[in-house]
């Protein structure tokens, strides 16, 4: 809290943002006292210091001429963000201003660089405060479990179990109690790692061995106890569940709890030139308040560099089984192989190889599945997500596709990579970023200014989307999925031009309007 008060000091005011009485109450609540009556200013020892240095010092000496400022940290596509913002008339703050509280828009790689307690009304930030409800492996699983209840999992999400919950561990062990169950293949993922770190492809037998442990070896812990940190080199180093829970089957007197999950592995993926691939698409939550706006953007496919096989001795070969760029980049042939394909090229391959009759139709079918699943994840999370004016998020959804052209959701990523390493990515990323920024601004601004006091006057997403970008152009390849203000919800491309079908809520609104017109 003391550090968060620095902004007023940089404005030339030697006072905290928080009322001093806050500290008296805070310490009194813990039977402690604090007395700073004899305290000295931190500036006493450095009155001669150069005032032009430091984290934002001197910035407010600039004239208040209505200039709008943005901050972007130097990572993951920052130059595209800068180009788009400058084109909109904004001025970039220096990189060292990362702790600055005064800005109009902030675009950072990680939301830990956003000071949510001091997020001011009217500021735009590129991460939703609790995005972990879909962007964390446990978060996405919990959100879908809560949404579907006894009907979990939906047909697009592989059966998944948390290994830090005793009841789910028991369910896994029940499935693995037969010889057939132990031959099944699972993917084991740490909860809080990315870029393929710690991921293992394992048999059911290996999962069972990992979870079971003699009761006398470990001290029993309750179901809600935090699991030990996952260590892929020592997967059994975790805390043990106790039979004393009542929900534990008496056959399992002890087992390990750990901060990871297991998910049924897709053993029949659709292959391209014999190789496994995944599809990265994008979801823009352009606004969460006063009414949410959600859009979909198609992406590209990422190929593994080794031919796919389910041979047991190849389960540990991540070049075969993981399509993450962070993994594949370590392959010696990565720079010599075209591993990023466009969706159109994938359609052409599927048709030319005889896997489908019509490649373009197959891609359309897949894209509609992706849109449906993204929309469903939004519905599952919409009541949980932070609804605060100014927060938006560009998310990356990763899908696998099976032999029957059925899409399977793997995970959702905050801060998706915006690199332009290949011609395919170079054709997608700049318009994606430019349209993201343009759409977010247009749906938050009233008369060219973001003003939380006038947020009820903000244009609805449907009007902005149909109005087009500056100059009437397209919003890249975005498609509108949800506009709560107008009651619009995408309901499939078979509904007519652009899939513009009115949701049940929209139908009800229209019916009320027609009834009112008749009454008049």
Give the arrangement of secondary structure elements:
Layout lengths: L5 H5 L10 H8 L39 E5 L5 H10 L2 E3 L12 E3 L16 E2 L6 H4 L1 H12 L11 E3 L3 H10 L3 H5 L1 E6 L9 E4 H8 L8 E2 L17 E4 L11 E4 L2 E5 L10 E13 L5 E15 L10 H4 L3 H4 L11 E3 H10 L6 H23 L11 E9 L5 E8 L8 H22 E2 L2 E2 L10 H7 L11 E5 L4 E2 L14 H16 L1
Parallel strand pairs: 1-2, 1-3, 3-4, 8-9
Antiparallel strand pairs: 5-11, 6-7, 6-11, 9-10, 12-13, 12-15, 13-14, 13-19, 15-16, 17-18, 19-20
Helix pairs in contact: 3-13, 5-12, 11-12
Quick description:
It contains 15 helices and 20 strands.
Gross morphology is: globular
Mean pLDDT: 80
Work out the strand percent: 15-25%
Total count of strands: 20
Number of helices, counting only DSSP H or I runs of 4 residues or more = 15
Task: Determine the structural class based on helices, strands and strand pairing.
Answer: alpha+beta
Q: How large, in whole angstroms, is the Cα Rg?
A: 26 Å
- Helix content, binned percent: 25-40%
Distance between the termini: 58 Å
Organism: Tetraparma gracilis
Pfam families: TTL
Protein name: Tubulin tyrosine ligase
Region (Disordered): 213-242
Explain what this protein looks like in three dimensions:
- The protein is α+β, with helices and mostly antiparallel strands and 520 residues long.
- The chain is built from 15 helices and 20 strands.
- It has helices at residues 6-10, 21-28, 78-87, 132-135, 137-148, 166-175, 179-183, 204-211, 318-321, 325-328, 343-352, 359-381, 423-444, 461-467, 504-519, and strands spanning 68-72, 90-92, 105-107, 124-125, 160-162, 185-190, 200-203, 220-221, 239-242, 254-257, 260-264, 275-287, 293-307, 340-342, 393-401, 407-414, 445-446, 449-450, 479-483, 488-489.
- Strand 15 and strand 16 (407-414) form a beta hairpin.
- The chain starts with 5 loop residues before the first helix and ends with a helix.
- The model is unreliable at 36-62, 214-250 and 495-520 (pLDDT under 50).
């Amino acid at each position: 809290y003391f550090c968060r008060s620095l902004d007023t000091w940089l404005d030339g005011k030697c006072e905290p943002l928080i009322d001093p009485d806050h500290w008296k109450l805070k310490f009194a609540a813990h039977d402690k006292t604090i007395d700073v009556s004899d305290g000295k200013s931190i500036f006493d020892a450095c009155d001669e210091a150069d005032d032009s240095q430091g984290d934002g010092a001197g910035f407010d000496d600039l004239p208040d001429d209505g200039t709008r400022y943005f901050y972007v940290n130097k990572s993951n596509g920052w130059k595209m963000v800068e180009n788009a913002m400058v084109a909109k008339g904004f001025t970039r703050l220096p990189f060292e201003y990362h702790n600055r509280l005064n800005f109009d828009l902030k675009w950072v790689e990680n939301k830990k660089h956003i000071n949510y307690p001091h997020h001011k009304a009217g500021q735009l930030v590129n991460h939703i405060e609790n995005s972990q409800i879909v962007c964390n492996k446990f978060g996405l699983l919990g959100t879908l479990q809560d949404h579907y209840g006894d009907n979990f999992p939906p047909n697009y999400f592989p059966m998944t179990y948390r290994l830090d919950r005793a009841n789910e561990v028991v369910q896994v062990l029940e499935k693995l109690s037969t010889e057939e169950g132990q031959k099944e293949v699972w993917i084991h993922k740490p909860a809080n790692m990315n870029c393929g770190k710690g991921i293992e492809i394992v048999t059911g037998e290996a999962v069972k061995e990992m979870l079971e442990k003699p009761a006398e070896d470990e001290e029993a812990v309750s179901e809600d106890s935090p699991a030990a940190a996952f260590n892929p080199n020592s997967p059994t180093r975790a805390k043990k569940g106790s039979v004393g829970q009542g929900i534990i089957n008496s056959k399992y007197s002890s087992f390990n709890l750990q901060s990871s999950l297991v998910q049924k592995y897709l053993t029949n993926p659709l292959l391209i030139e014999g190789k496994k691939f995944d599809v990265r698409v994008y979801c823009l939550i352009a606004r969460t308040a006063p009414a949410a706006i959600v859009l979909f953007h198609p992406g590209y496919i990422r190929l593994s560099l080794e031919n796919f096989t389910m041979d047991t001795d190849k389960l540990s070969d991540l070049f075969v089984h993981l399509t993450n760029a962070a993994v594949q980049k370590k392959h010696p042939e990565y720079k010599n192989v075209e591993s990023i394909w466009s969706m159109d090229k994938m359609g052409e391959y599927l048709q030319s190889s005889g896997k489908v009759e019509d490649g373009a139709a197959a891609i359309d079918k897949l894209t509609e599945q992706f849109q449906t699943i993204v929309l469903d994840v939004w519905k599952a999370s919409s009541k949980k997500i932070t609804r605060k004016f100014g927060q938006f998020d560009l998310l990356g959804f990763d899908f696998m596709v099976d032999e029957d052209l059925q899409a399977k959701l793997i995970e959702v990523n905050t801060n998706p990579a915006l690199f332009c390493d290949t011609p395919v990515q170079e054709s997608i990323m700049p318009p994606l970023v430019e349209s993201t920024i343009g759409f977010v601004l247009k749906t938050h601004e009233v008369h060219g200014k973001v003003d939380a006091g006038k947020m009820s006057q903000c244009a609805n997403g449907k009007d902005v989307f149909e109005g087009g970008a500056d100059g009437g152009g397209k919003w890249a390849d975005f498609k509108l999925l949800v506009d709560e203000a107008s009651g619009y919800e995408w309901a499939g491309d078979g509904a007519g031009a652009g899939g513009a079908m009115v949701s049940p809520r929209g139908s009800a609104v229209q019916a009320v309007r027609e009834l009112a017109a008749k009454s008049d």
